Protein 1
Amino acid sequence: MLNLFQAKPLCIAHRGASSLAPENTLASARKALEIGADMWELDVSVTADGQLIVLHDDSLARTSNASALFPNRAPWLISNFTLTEIKQLDAGSWFIESDPFGTIASGTVTLDEQTIMRGQPIPTLQEALLFTQVHNWRVNVEIKALIPPLTGFPVVEAVVSLIESLDMTEQVLLSSFVHAYMQQAKALHPAIAAAALLDEGEAWPAGLTIDALHPHYTSVDADHTQTLRQTGVAVNPWTVNDPAGMKRLIAAGVTGIFTDFPQVLKQVIG
Ligand code: G3P
Ligand code: MG
């Protein structure tokens, strides 16, 4: 199983280095790898034809040109698009145009980097895992709650079976806000690490068979963290972008931190 208890807290690049490149693309993963993040995080969803792809929102609209390419398909739900259609999308240009972290305006992202971003495809989970494997890296695969008509799709079985077929059980940490998914994953393959995600204000759960908790950073304190660590459960809060917040969590004893700015967290960890 992936070792979540390292000498220093893990730098987990949220959706890749998402302040420096379009989230959930291989360009973003490559940037996080260059920076030296210990792991990248991605979100996995399912297409209309049952393929696992890397996407955060239920809709393709925010992070691709789906609305321009398929103008009559509003609200561009992932569950209504096939993989062949999704592979036609540009999942990079929106980042340059909307500049979600101000890194284009500040000049942090160079023109050469912007050229690479344009036309970035939405990766399949298999492509994202192979990228991770070839670089001998680690990844947190967050399984999103599925929306109709795909709510009954066996997403956990599909994800676990892909990880097994690529022989990557030591390199993957699964997570989900749907805790039943994580129980299912542990039942299918106990040696794959699994984490329960907690929303802001959500109570810390008891009685789950999991390897890590991923709470919202606002609900993390040293007492809870120490108690969990003592029972062998790692604590990796999300998503922290300011150095003061990072330092507070490190002082509380967390095992890892999710950030859109792995370049900042790496410096803070030292
Ligand atoms: O896994 C940490 C974080 O990614 C959870 O929230 O909405 O960014 O997927 P979200
Ligand atoms: Mg996520």
Protein 2
Amino acid sequence: MVVRGILKGLARSPTQGRSGDKALLSPTGSASVRHSSANSDMLARQAVLDEFEQAGFSWLWSTDSEGRLSYISPGAMAKAPALVGKLLTSVIETDPENPDERSGRPLTFQISAHCRISDLVVRFTGAAGNDLRWWALSGQPYMLPDGTFAGYRGFARDVTSEYRRKREDSRAAAFDSLTGLFNRHRMTGRLDAVLAAFRPTGQCCGLMMMDLDRFKHVNDTMGHPAGDELLRQVADRLRTVVGDRGEIGRMGGDEFQIIMPNFDDRGQMGELAAKLIQMVSQPYAIDGKRAVIGASLGIAVAPHDGDTREALVASADLALYAAKNGGRGQFRFFSSELQDEAMERSVLNHDLREALVREELELHYQPVVRIDDNMVVGFEALMRWNHSERGAISPSVFIPIAEESNLIVPLGDWALRQACTDAAKWPQSVRLGVNISSVQFANPSFVATVADALEQSGLEPQRLELELTENVFMRDTELVDEAFAALKGLGVRLALDDFGSGYSSLRYLQSAPFDTLKVDRSFVATCAADDQNSAKIISAIIGLADALGMETTVEGVEAFDQLEVVRDRGAKQVQGHIFANAIPVVEVNRHMESGALKIEPNGPSRHRIERRAVFRRVGIIHDDHRYEAVMRDLSRVGARIDGLLGVPVGTNLVVDLGGGQLAVSVVTRSQGPVIGVEFETPLTSDGAGGLCTRHRLSPMMLAVANAASEAAPKGRQQFMEVAVRGSRDHG
Ligand code: C2E
Ligand code: CA
Ligand code: CA
């Protein structure tokens, strides 16, 4: 029996040589007494091994020095003997998806290095057909007395059913069952592993966080199964766009993450992000119905924006937050300014809590004017915050902060009650508009608050107009309908604010009982310029409102040319600086007392589109010398820089835009202290209307470079630095 060959090896002690083998092999016990006791030992062992083989728990195997199978227990599988002579590595392979992640060295390497193998799970590939078997293989090398490798001896057992289960479990642990993408657990592990592997070499890794806009709306209005189907389709689109450039996971809900190892080109990442948003925003067909969603995306790159998982994820989250706040449907790169903004927000949120108590909040009122006769038909209440240290803070800054912390509910309640009380003293003909945040609207006690504010102030309900935005529809339709019905029951008016700026779904107009449409001021801003589309959109919205029996108010009219355009386009009511800004209540009351309810328009004849001057301090590096200068203009391909005198055209410079962003440039124009430079590599979009370099110097390199420049003698100064004053210097 071949078993004996195996037995031989396993039983041999290191001191026993070849001669001992012969003795051991002797079947008849013709040797000495010492030998005969060894012999009976040996027979006993053989019996045990035979039993062992026959029991079928495990089987035995051995190879020769070249790795060819020299023995395999007949019970291992049908036709086991046919395997003898084959290379072990040709009939087994390790599992590429090994859940133990003990991927380590490849099997062929382990065997050729004569490593000990212990309980290694391998797939038996020598079987015919689809009979997939998994073996747990153990074995150790055995040596000839002179130390040369003679082969492997070992045992193995069939672990197919338990290993299959384990694989399924680990798939379940690694994959999101809904979309088949990786799950949060797996993505967390992967990001840790990639960052750990890249840290020593400073390799880059991009991380994208994506969040769907309006997903909740689809879920609420079309049902959860439709929401699930939508997520599956989103996952398919992500896979198609990303391909093998990254690993995609669903982190839960409608949040996705993409890890992109070895990505540091922000140009490419921005293009990919834009493509992802574009693809996800295409309509979906679900159960024969159409659904439209959007996506926002935040991007951070290790090691620049964080070199641990926690730091990198926090950076990407912050960028995502900024992308969403920037109007959704956008991507945004992380930058250190975002971090400052986040700090700022949390400080303001804290201060805002105190503001109500300290009476730092006030309501101002902006007139709404009928343009036939310039009569004031109403006022819109606008909140003002006089911060004790910072002065006036715009509601477009603090309202979103209050919405995030739900502070908007007490704030909005206060505004509503205060405005009703103020307006109750005004003439009957004057209406009151009050802005209602969607967060406030969603509060279950909102309708009761409105009823109470009316009762306490004595204001007639038909004089109160609640200004809502489309965001109120991002909720369970039934609840929204109920609230609308209850408000109409109270007799108040409803206005749809900022119409045209969001999704502007006509379904909202059809389903909700609005009395007024407020045309978003972005159309007015451009309607008098060459942009004929804005003017056409204004007519279309007014026409639509007329057809539905609604009033319209056009917001943001500042100049006479705009007033002409909106009048031509059928506007009846206008709100804007051309008539008045928002004014404190005492001023409103003064006008009321003097009976002056008529306002003559007053403003510039033509609207000028405001150009914000770029003013940004930059470093200019030339010949190891660093100059400070001011950047006046920035485009993808070049910049205009102020502050260096006598720089010849053709000079090579490096413009330091901050945060490791170095742009290699050449001077193309030079006039006095102003130079024009062209970048060697064009800049790329930062996702927020700004520009950034594609690559950055890593924090490590930056530290090294700084240390070096501190230590080294300063380079020769060749150009004269001249002081530049910017708009900010003037305050
Ligand atoms: P909104 O409801 O669209 O209010 C109109 C905004 O346009 C006001 O900005 C107003 O000052 C400004 N505006 C009026 N005429 C002109 C013009 O001719 N040109 C330009 N460029 N702007 C004009 P404001 O007061 O800064 O408020 C910003 C936003 O903050 C409001 O936009 C509203 O969404 C929110 N908000 C203000 N007060 C409240 C409030 O009490 N509650 C809630 N929930 N939101 C409020
Ligand atoms: Ca408003
Ligand atoms: Ca508005």
